[in-house]
Design goal:
- This protein is of the alpha+beta class and 119 residues long.
- The chain has 1 helix and 3 strands, in the order βββα.
Length: 119
């Protein structure tokens, strides 16, 4: 098994360029992509092909691959967690606003009922 770090993988037109590697020879479950490819345009793969490092293709040793993999996955999880947190905050804020509106409507309705009796 050979490990690689590929940079400039995602082209401007959205097509992925795996350099000289044959994607049919990739090991399943060993492709790792950063969550935000615009900021970090790279990926990690494992393949049965043995191609030496060149330009945008860097052959890694197993230890390097797993260190980078763990870093990318940790960063991906952090990004997702932050987005989930923001989404939850937005939901809570909306629910609080809805509760306030319902309470105000209820108070207004009770006030109107009381005012009918005063007239």
């Amino acid at each position: 098994m050979f490990y690689y770090k590929l940079v400039n993988v995602r082209q401007e037109n959205g097509v992925y360029d795996y350099k000289e590697l044959d994607i049919d020879l990739f090991y399943k479950g060993y492709q790792v992509y950063p969550f935000n490819m615009r900021e970090n345009n790279m990926c990690l793969v494992a393949s049965s092909e043995n191609i030496p490092s060149n330009g945008d293709l860097e052959q890694l040793i197993e230890k390097e691959y797993f260190q980078l993999k763990n870093m990318i996955e940790e960063e991906n999880n952090t990004i997702v967690s932050k987005q989930e947190y923001k989404t939850q905050e937005e939901r809570i804020e909306k629910l609080e606003n809805d509760i306030t509106i319902l309470q105000n409507n209820s108070i207004e309705q009770k006030y109107n009922e009381l005012m009918k009796g005063v007239k």
